[in-house]
Amino acid sequence: xxxxxxxxxxxxxxxxxxxxxxxxxxxxxxxxxxxxxxxxxxxxxxxxxxxxxxxxxxxxxxxxxxxxxxxxxxxxxxxxxxxxxxxxxxxxxxxxxxxxxxxxxxxxxxxxxxxxxxxxxxxxxxxxxxxxxxxxxxxxxxxxxxxxxxxxxxxxxxxxxxxxxxxxxxxxxxxxxxxxxxxxxxxxxxxxxxxxxxxxxxxxxxxxxxxxxxxxxxxxxxxx
Length: 224
Ligand code: HEM
Description:
By secondary structure, this protein is mainly alpha-helical. The protein is 73% helix and 0% strand. The longest helix has 31 residues, at 58-88.
């Protein structure tokens, strides 16, 4: 615990905690995508998978707590570091150095805020059923929560699909920079690995973009 508070007080410690918490979320994104793609195999496969997750008991709550704590830590530390960076150079840059900065690296705060808003909306939509509640809470013929119906019917609404695809674009933009940045921060980057981490980051961002978008697109075209 002492080490944790020591890390929080130093800028490099804060960056390391951001990298680790972000890494936990990259893992979540890939596992969540694999799970969601069950929907392409039909109603039974999807509902069985969702039922399995719902019945994990304490494992589910431990995982949820880890993701929630990592997310809150990541957002708070990003805000603190952003604030400290801008107060360290209050006059601001007159000219941006765009030689190495990419669109993704320059828009990390914006894409991060978009992801934060999306996650709140997404949990209200699929986990709590507070928004678009007309699709929530139905049971299938086996008496399981009909997640297949909830997801496919939701995405037949073009506004919901548009909101999800916009959010997925931001997630993949954020990830395309975050992946290599994480290795850089943790000191696991060097001249020989720089290109590898960068291209792996772009590859993962493409998987997230095409994998997650495939679901609303398949639903809107009536393929699922
Ligand atoms: C096409 C895109 C997506 C679909 C169809 C989808 C589907 C779902 C569903 C059905 C649930 C509820 C699971 C349940 O309670 O049974 C869920 C929960 C969740 N999703 Fe997604 N998701 C998508 C994209 C994303 C993205 C891009 C993120 C992260 C940036 C994300 C983060 C979460 C989180 C944090 C939860 C809550 C997990 C929990 O209840 O413990 N999802 N998603």
